[in-house]
Specification:
With about 500 residues, the protein is an alpha+beta fold. Helix content is about 40%, strand content about 10%. Among the domains are: about 180 residues, no CATH class; about 160 residues, no CATH class. It binds adenosine monophosphate and magnesium ion.
């Protein structure tokens, strides 16, 4: 494996690498591999600014740095060790097989953030993989990361995309690329499982202490900081998964190695947004049993968090029985936590400022009508935000194949709104428009952008999509076509990890 450091050293990153200071079993140091002919597709300049990076240096040296060809000064490149349950089966050793953590920076808000290259070559954890990424999945992750950010959903961010000028060999030969990801950290449920699988309780404790310091410093003085940590992670995940449901997001591969401790969405390879609403929607080609279907996500979240709880048992209490009791009391609250977040967000989506007992039923009736009539999830809520006049109502109803149930529902909704005191019609509309996006990264648009890039090296659709998705809650009259659901021939029924 070649590794050349350019003599004209580049220090665009004020690195401060805390993970690299952890005990050696946490990671394996690994320099990135060389790319043949790197070309900078995209640099996220606003994010680079937020991270306190030298944007001019990155514009100049970005192709070399973000391909892995030039390791910037201060980086301490490494691959992180982790384990994980993949579709329910435990794999004791996974780890970064095609990702290399360059290091960490403290951003302008004082937050520590990881900068990681994905697709920059093999590591100690590559098993039979080539450590590389194809252009399509890199663009997909770029688009969805930034869309999630603009939608207000915690997720890892996209700092850069480069093409390598080298082929990668999948079912077909594809252009290679490297994705540069920014995360609050890359610590996963599976990172804890890695130590538990080795009977390394000191490792679990060191990791938990590190996580409390980095992500939950306010818990340090709790009576039982580890139990408080577990509660806090459950809370963040419950809130996160509720947000996914509010925007019609399906992660696609919610393995325990793809669930962060920070509460950010991560590793959404085969993810997709629903067009028409159906609770059982699955896109991922590898999710044959629908384990990670849209409406299964909260339950899977709980399952994954139960696995996290198992790893923390020895830290909860020296008495094993007591430890299990404590873990159970936390995981049993998860369902209620999730329901609170979900219901609060759904109330907002239908424009309610007050709380009534019948609200859940009202929301479920709308979802049932949407499912029975193949209503487009995003469009229906956006048009409901603007409902009022007969014409505006008709636009909402036109998203349903069979509008009768939706028409009856509108009457029930208006009756409920009449008791939603303290809010004018204009307030209600405005409040709904900032939670019901006009634009989501629709699958067919992503596919079109990827195809143009892969087949014709044309990145204009990728750029257009990024600019539309940067303002998902604004009407962008020049881009109404991006609001629309796919035509029958444009529908994407399956997505792939592309690994
Ligand atoms: P993911 O599906 O991206 O969450 O990855 C699951 C596991 O497979 C992780 O340990 C990855 O590092 C590894 N992996 C995925 N793709 C590759 C690849 N092309 N080369 C090496 N390892 C890979
Ligand atoms: Mg993963």
């Amino acid at each position: 494996m070649t590794f050349a450091l350019d003599t004209s050293t580049s220090r665009p990153f004020p690195f401060d690498n805390s993970y690299a200071r952890l005990p050696q079993q946490f990671f394996t140091r690994q320099a990135p591999s060389q790319a043949a002919e790197p070309w900078l597709i995209k640099l996220n300049e606003p994010l680079a600014e937020e991270l306190g990076l030298d944007v001019e240096a990155l514009k100049r040296d970005g192709a070399a740095i973000f391909s892995g060809n030039l390791v910037p000064e201060g980086a301490d490149p490494l691959a992180m060790a982790y384990a994980g349950h993949q579709f329910g089966s435990f794999v004791p050793l996974l780890g970064d097989g095609r990702a290399i953590l360059l290091g960490e920076v403290i951003d302008r808000n004082g937050q520590r953030r990881d900068i990681q290259l994905k697709g920059a070559g093999q590591t100690a954890y590559s098993r039979r993989g080539d450590g590389r990424a194809a252009l399509g999945p890199v663009l997909r992750e770029y688009i969805v990361s930034e869309a999630m950010y603009a939608l207000g959903v915690p997720a890892t961010r996209a700092l850069a995309a480069v093409s390598t000028g080298q082929p990668v060999y999948r079912e077909s030969i594809l252009p290679g690329a490297v994705f540069t990801r920014v995360a609050a950290s890359h610590i996963r449920v599976g990172t804890f499982q890695f130590f538990t699988a080795r009977g390394d309780t000191d490792g679990v404790r060191a990791l938990a202490d590190y996580v409390i310091d980095r992500h939950y410093p306010e818990l340090k003085d709790s009576d039982n900081p580890y139990l408080a940590l577990y509660e806090a992670v459950c809370e963040r995940q419950a809130a996160l998964i509720a947000r996914w449901l509010h925007i019609g997001f399906i992660h696609g591969v919610m393995n325990t190695d793809n669930m962060t401790i920070s509460g950010e969405t991560i590793d959404f390879g085969p993810c997709a947004f629903m067009d028409e609403y159906h609770a059982g929607t699955v896109f991922s080609s590898i999710d044959q049993g629908g384990r990670y279907a849209y409406a299964n996500q909260p339950g899977v979240g709980q399952w994954n968090l139960a696995r996290l709880g198992e790893t923390l048992l020895p830290l909860f209490d020296a008495d094993a029985e007591k430890a299990v009791e404590l873990a159970n009391s936390v995981i049993q609250q998860y369902g209620e936590r999730f329901q609170i977040h979900w219901l609060r967000g759904m109330r907002e989506k239908i424009g309610l400022a007050t709380v009534e007992d019948g609200d859940l039923d009202l929301i479920q009736s709308l979802l049932a009508a949407m499912q029975a009539s193949q209503a487009d999830f995003t469009l229906a809520f956006r048009r409901l935000s603007d409902a009022g006049s007969a014409d505006e109502d008709a636009l909402f109803l036109s998203t349903f194949r069979e509008p009768d149930a939706a028409r009856e529902w509108l009457a029930r909704w208006r009756d409920r709104l009449s008791r939603d005191e303290g809010r004018t019609e204009a307030d209600r509309r405005a409040a709904m428009r900032v939670v019901n996006p006009a634009f989501i990264p629709r699958n067919h648009r992503i596919e079109q952008a990827i195809n143009a890039a892969v087949e014709d090296a044309d990145f204009s659709l990728f750029e257009a999509l990024l600019s539309v998705l940067a303002k998902p809650y604004d009407d962008q009259p020049g881009f109404v076509a991006y609001m629309e659901r796919p035509k029958p021939e444009e529908r994407v029924l399956q997505t792939f990890c592309g690994t």
